[in-house]
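Note to self: the last two entries modelled the partners one at a time, which told us nothing about the interface. This time every component goes in together.
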Amino acid sequence: EADIYQTPRYLVIGTGKKITLECSQTMGHDKMYWYQQDPGMELHLIHYSYGVNSTEKGDLSSESTVSRIRTEHFPLTLESARPSHTSQYLCASNEHRSPLHFGNGTRLTVT
Amino acid sequence: GQQVMQIPQYQHVQEGEDFTTYCNSSTTLSNIQWYKQRPGGHPVFLIQLVKSGEVKKQKRLTFQFGEAKKNSSLHITATQTTDVGTYFCAGPSTGNQFYFGTGTSLTVIP
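The predicted structure of the combined assembly is written out below.
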C-alpha cells in the first residue's frame, strides 16, 4: 500500500474559518496533486506541484492555496471557508507518468 | 482544455452479466490509466496502457487502448458484487498532470 497520508479524515467547520488540509507522502515523489470530488462524481484537479517551490493551479477554479516547501509535504489552505467548499479533497502523488497514489481523502463540511 | 468523457455514467447489472465502460479523449494520449473507487474510498490504480491497440487482461477485466490512442474501454466478464464501484480512466495532459474521466458507476444486483 502506498504511503500517502491525509489529515484530518473528516472536518466540520463554520463559514469564514481558515483551514489547512494536510497531505504527506514518504515515497519521495516529486509530483503531488490535489483533487476535489463531490460524492459519486468526477475528480477535478485544483492544484499540482512538480517539486519543491513549484505549484500550479488546475482546471477547476478554486479559492484555495497550496505550498510545497518540502518534497513530502503539500498542504492545502482555505483562507475563508464557505458552504460551497463542502466536498471531498483527495491528495495524490506520483513520479513522471507512473500511476497516482491517493490518500484516503478529507471530507470537508462547511456549515 | 483536455476533456475525457466516459459512458455510461451509471450502469446497473445483474450479477453474472457483463459490463463495459468507454473512455474518450478530445486529444491523443501518450498513455491511459484506469482506476477503481469503491463507495466511500479513494481511487486505486488498476492498469496502464501505453501502446496503440494494446489489450491487457486482469482475470475477468479486459482493458483496451484504441488505435488512435484517443479512446479506451474496460470490460468486465461475469460481474460479481465485489466489482461494485466507480471506474475512472485518466490520461496525462501535455503538462503531465492527470485528467480523470467523468467515471462510470457500476451497481451489481445480487
